[in-house]
DNA sequence: TTATATAGTTAACGCGCGTTAGTAAATCGC
DNA sequence: GCGATTTACTAACGCGCGTTAACTATATAA
């Protein structure tokens, strides 16, 4: 355990086992097509075990041109990341796959300023074999560059007109379903607070679902009842205050993010109103805390872990040169009815 | 932008600029002690820019023996990670530092089974220059191995008897302060639900603070009022139910994790009781949602981002061979009084 | 004028490993 | 018993870069 022990290389293992380094490599990597006698194999494995040999991954990468690592790339600021109630589920889902496939997971945050270069450099530097892109923005020009490059990448979310493979839910349909539920309870004046600014694709999609639900019920949408939030509870708090102060009447609100909904609910409470007695609330995402909120929040369940896992699987296909079975995978959502909506 | 463009190496840059590869390396890495004429430097920079040269990090690592990457190592299961309301703050804090230092961040999850090897292999594989260890467990023998190895590592949390540098808060004192606040409001029958099983160091420390507060107020602790939760809201829900069903009387509860507290609060509500009217609740961590809970949760504020940043800074010192200024850094906590505790 | 320092640059080695082309010995067919 | 095959292994190259030692040309000192 001394600290001056030299690094153990495959050459050391070879010497110890009395074979060549090539043989060590063949044995340890289970290379097909080369015959290794059982006793030689055994000797090598024992030597490696005894010396505590761990291959140097930089050398492996350099020689094999594969890093065995993938990147999770986020475009949001560290501040927003800190209150992202969704991230743990994503990371948990990714870790499940990466551990089982013996991959490493790298977290990258690229800022809006140097996006155009960031993606490319990430892959060109060969730190990762491919990447999963979180919450893409429609105005992200760097993504266009990615499409023309040879870099394996999977989108979590959907980007209109992009050929990048993607994993997503049908945001529009899910939002429509949620709002239809409110309508079925008798609500007709329904407000909407988005999850994010309009430049993030999911936001307008969910708004569209909201509008479609209203239209299909013969309710003409009131633009004054729509607010665009910005991911965090603070923004939900503000937007709800804005709605309440607008003096537009509404009996229910569809908040396209549970995280934002937490803030919105606080604003309702501070205004002396109650959920669902005065205002019914429908969320979106079904984060782990929604179930324990007061009242328990009805919401569209987003299969976050499954999304992450599927994205990871697709990415692995891409890395291995196979185009994935489905280029744009849509996972199922589910409407979870709890106690935040009441019938009129 | 063709996909068949060969990788651009420093040799290409050298050829393009009409100099040697060595000169390219000197210019691009700003190596001291070698004089490069301004015009040569300029030529190299232009060539690199024009060709879109991005150094291959595997080759850099192999040659320089530095990865410019650090790892965040968690021992908890992917399932627990998914509901960790704390993780985003940690990652956000780390990203701030790593971006500014041009480092990469790797997320690792080591399972309890092969812990003993895991830490060592991580570093020996030279994927990372050092690591930050989250929520260490007291019975983690692999950590002992780390201490004797030459691997830069910083603990987030404290481990009794470990010489590993650490960043933490004074859990005992913070918990004591929180419970003293309850006592000052007149509570004398105070229950306690921990954040985690006793094997995670922070849990017993916070319990100790709870006990110290009671003792200093001349209240003899009731062991029947203590429950050990398991990180997530579910466990909080269960433990609170267990407390309520025990028929032991209590007017307040100290929950040593806001995340757990959310579940506990739901249990109280489902039992037909109210916070703070029937039971006052004091949390710990002050996660971003506590402020928006109903009622807003009083809690000890844990400077999560700052903890992450400090851990990162210490780790960088370690990697550069300097022992950090303070080996065991304790950051300040703050008692945030909101509306979940009432005076008796 | 000769020795010496300095500025500017490069040849060449090594980091640790994957992999191809090849070698030597054992086995086989007839 | 001799070439043809199979079995078991290895020498040697290259991945792309950092870095040391050396080399050339010019300026300075003796």
Architecture overview:
2 copies of one chain form a homodimer. Chain A is an alpha/beta fold and 344 residues long. Chain A contains 13 helices and 12 strands. The first copy, chain A, has helices at residues 10-17, 21-28, 38-51, 57-64, 78-82, 87-100, 115-124, 141-148, 171-184, 202-216, 233-245, 258-270, 304-319; strands at residues 69-74, 104-109, 130-134, 153-156, 166-169, 190-193, 226-227, 252-255, 280-285, 298-301, 328-331, 334-336. In chain A, the strands form 2 sheets. Chain A has a 6-stranded parallel beta sheet with strand order 2-1-3-4-5-11, covered by helices on one side. A 6-stranded mixed beta sheet of chain A has the order 7-6-8-9-10-12, with helices on both faces. In chain A, strand 8, helix 12 and strand 9 form a beta-alpha-beta unit. In chain A, helix 9 runs parallel beside helix 10 (202-216) and helix 11 crosses helix 12. The N and C termini of chain A lie far apart (72 Å). The mean pLDDT of chain A is 91. Chains A and B meet through helix 4, helix 5, helix 6, strand 2 and helix 7 of A and helix 4, helix 5, helix 6, strand 2 and helix 7 of B. Strand 2 (104-109) of chain A pairs antiparallel with strand 2 of chain B. Chain A binds a DNA duplex (30 and 30 nucleotides) through helix 2 and helix 4.
